[in-house]
């Protein structure tokens, strides 16, 4: 039974993968284009989880492609069925969805449902083989998979591999932050926003808000619960509460705040002085409108091994603040309870790769 299952899957995977890739490529090419009217509802039926009867979509990736139907929240949030990739009532066999297994062989085949250990056994299955998103043999550069990094700047960009600290800290320690940065420097930071949705009213960005600080300060980061100031910035775009929080932090040097709001697509910039003992910078701006989405850089150290870094550029990947559960840009407020950690938004992924909404560049000018 188990072997026949995988023979059938092998036959289907190639065709399904090719078809899925073609669909995602077509949706990528349409980003920013005018969409033909469509709806997630058709009489008593709905299109939740797939394409509508027009050009728009009703799946969990539509936010990233900018092609959600206007009624996706109204139709799909109310009618979406509960997740079925679960071992509840399925121990010893296949899940109700058919996408994963709950038997004593699933660990060997690598297809256990995520709650198999909790639901079906008191002994968790053996861990999977090491993922390719690893820093093993990649310290100082990019992982073998190309999905994450293992260099001394990955913490600032938020793209370190999961085992970066364990694998690389002893073999590739970061340089001392002040040793070669005794003299103050001046930088110009420029955010180039390329986000250009066709189905979002008045797309724009809130004023840049952040700080220069030392390495002991974390204003926000993935895996961390957002402070009230970060929550307000991500949900409303207001920089004031976050600026007040920064001013009270021991180890923060100065608040950095840009002008705004900024239309999208568009460009904004600001200049700032920086000192060797406060060589780290954090900045953020709200994706507006949105429930609680934002972009930025966290903990980027501008002091490198050879002194002040001349120029550094990063993609602006979308983050979810974990405070509002809305699924579309204009969703009504839906407080997330309990509040979740900040994470990269999985809806902004195209062909398995993050889809940035712009880029940010730090250029030393003095």
Tell me about this structure:
With 366 residues, the chain is of the alpha+beta class. It has four domains: 2-79, no CATH class; 83-128, no CATH class; 130-174, Factor Xa Inhibitor (Irregular); 185-364, Immunoglobulin-like, CATH 2.60.40. The chain has helices spanning 2-29, 62-65, 72-79, 106-109, 116-120, 154-157, 164-168, 228-236, 240-247; strands spanning 41-42, 45-46, 185-193, 204-205, 209-213, 252-257, 262-263, 266-274, 280-288, 293-301, 303-304, 307-308, 311-315, 319-320, 343-344, 349-350, 353-354, 358-364. Strands 4, 5, 6, 7, 9, 10, 14 and 15 form an eight-stranded antiparallel beta sheet that branches. Strands 8-3-18-13 form a four-stranded antiparallel beta sheet, with no helix packed on it. A hairpin with a 2-residue loop joins strand 16 and strand 17. Residues 1-14, 78-83 and 171-179 have low confidence and may be disordered.
Quick structural overview:
Helix content is 20%, strand content 22%. The chain is of the alpha+beta class and 366 residues long.
List the helices and strands and how they pair.
Blueprint: H1 2-29, E1 41-42, E2 45-46, H2 62-65, H3 72-79, H4 106-109, H5 116-120, H6 154-157, H7 164-168, E3 185-193, E4 204-205, E5 209-213, H8 228-236, H9 240-247, E6 252-257, E7 262-263, E8 266-274, E9 280-288, E10 293-301, E11 303-304, E12 307-308, E13 311-315, E14 319-320, E15 343-344, E16 349-350, E17 353-354, E18 358-364
Antiparallel strand pairs: 1-2, 3-8, 3-18, 4-7, 4-9, 5-6, 5-9, 9-10, 10-14, 11-12, 13-18, 14-15, 16-17
Helix pairs in contact: 8-9
């Amino acid at each position: 039974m188990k072997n026949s299952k995988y023979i059938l899957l092998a036959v289907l995977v190639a065709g399904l993968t090719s078809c899925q890739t073609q669909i995602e490529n077509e949706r990528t090419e349409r980003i920013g284009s005018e969409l033909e009217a469509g709806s997630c509802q058709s009489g008593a039926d709905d299109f939740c989880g797939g394409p509508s009867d027009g050009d728009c979509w009703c799946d969990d990736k539509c936010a990233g492609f900018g092609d959600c139907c206007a009624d996706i929240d109204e139709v799909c949030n109310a009618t979406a069925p509960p997740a079925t990739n679960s071992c509840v009532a399925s121990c010893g066999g296949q899940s109700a969805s058919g996408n994963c297994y709950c038997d004593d062989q699933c660990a060997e085949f690598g297809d256990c449902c995520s709650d198999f250990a909790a639901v079906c056994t008191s002994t968790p299955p053996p861990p999977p083989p090491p993922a390719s998103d690893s820093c093993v043999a990649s310290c100082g550069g990019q992982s073998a998979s190309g999905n994450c990094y293992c260099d001394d700047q990955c913490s600032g960009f938020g793209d370190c591999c999961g085992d970066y600290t364990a694998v690389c800290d002893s073999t590739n320690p970061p340089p001392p932050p002040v040793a070669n940065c005794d003299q103050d420097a001046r930088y110009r930071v420029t955010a180039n926003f390329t986000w250009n949705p066709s189905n979002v009213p008045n797309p724009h960005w809130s004023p840049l808000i952040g700080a220069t600080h030392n390495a002991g300060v974390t204003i926000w980061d993935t895996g961390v619960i957002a402070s009230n100031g970060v929550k307000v910035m991500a949900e409303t775009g207001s920089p004031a509460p976050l600026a007040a929080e920064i001013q009270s932090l021991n180890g923060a040097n100065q608040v950095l705040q840009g002008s705004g709001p900024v239309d999208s697509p568009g460009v904004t910039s600001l200049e700032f002085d920086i000192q060797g003992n406060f060589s780290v910078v954090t900045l953020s701006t709200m994706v507006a409108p949105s429930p609680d989405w934002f972009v930025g850089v966290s903990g980027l150290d501008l002091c490198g091994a050879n002194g002040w870094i001349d120029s550094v550029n990063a993609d602006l990947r979308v983050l979810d603040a974990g405070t509002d559960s809305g699924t579309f840009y204009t969703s009504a407020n839906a407080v997330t309870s309990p509040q979740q950690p900040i994470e990269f938004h999985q809806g902004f992924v195209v062909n398995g790769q993050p889809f940035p909404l712009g880029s940010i560049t730090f250029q030393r000018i003095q």
